[in-house]
Amino acid sequence: MLKIFLSLATLLSALIHFAVASAEEAHTPAATHRTPGCTEPERHQLDFWLGDWDTFEPEGALGPSQARAHVDSILSSCAVHELYEQFDGLIGDSFLSYDSITKRWQQTWLTNYGAYMFLTGTFKDGVLTLEGNSHTKTKDIPHRITWKAERSGVRETGVMSMDGGKTWVAAFDVLFLKHQDKP
């Protein structure tokens, strides 16, 4: 009889514990639902670059397009994605994002030739300026790249240093114009 009493007491204790736990869960407020998205105004500093683009040499008469680029806001405005497809076969893919802690932009750029670039910098007076290194299969080259609205499009200019940053030379200069829009 004592064994039956102890078993019933154990069962009753377990049921009480279960009932208390269930009651606590019922009164616990539901987890706050977070809405995805990044709302800082800085994250929209590159909105002028969003779109479907043809790219051109910016100097002289406008010749044929060199590449096609798609630049989109992704991840609920938390990042900018660029897909760059040059007509000679080079494909580049990049992700840009604003870090609200460091107050800096960062870009990761990769190509189908194995090049990798990680750059960081700031947006000031309508110009995004990023600096970092380009890593190819054999070299590590410092780069500085700028983006700014220009001539109904966007101009992206890159310089590089072959002597560790003592001197800089032109790496590329590209004018993005809305696809099929020519001045």
Spatial order of the strands forming the largest sheet: 1-2-3-4-5-6-7-8-9-10
- What value does the average pLDDT take? 85
What helical percentage do the residues reach?
Answer: 10-25%
Give the amount of beta strand, in percent. Answer: over 45%
Specify the number of helices: 1
What does this structure look like?
By secondary structure, this protein is mainly beta. It has a single domain, classed as Lipocalin (Beta Barrel), CATH 2.40.128. About 15% of the residues lie in helices and about 45% in strands. Strands 1-2-3-4-5-6-7-8-9-10 form a 10-stranded antiparallel barrel.
Provide tags for this entry.
single chain, 183 residues, mainly beta, Lipocalin, ten-stranded antiparallel barrel, 14% helix, globular, disordered N terminus
Short summary of the structure?
This protein is mostly beta strands. Helix content is about 15%, strand content about 45%. It has a single domain (about 40-55, about 65-180), classed as Lipocalin (Beta Barrel).
Secondary-structure topology with pairs:
Elements: H1 2-27, E1 51-56, E2 67-74, E3 79-86, E4 91-99, E5 104-111, E6 116-124, E7 127-135, E8 140-150, E9 153-160, E10 169-178
Antiparallel strand pairs: 1-2, 1-10, 2-3, 3-4, 4-5, 5-6, 6-7, 7-8, 8-9, 9-10
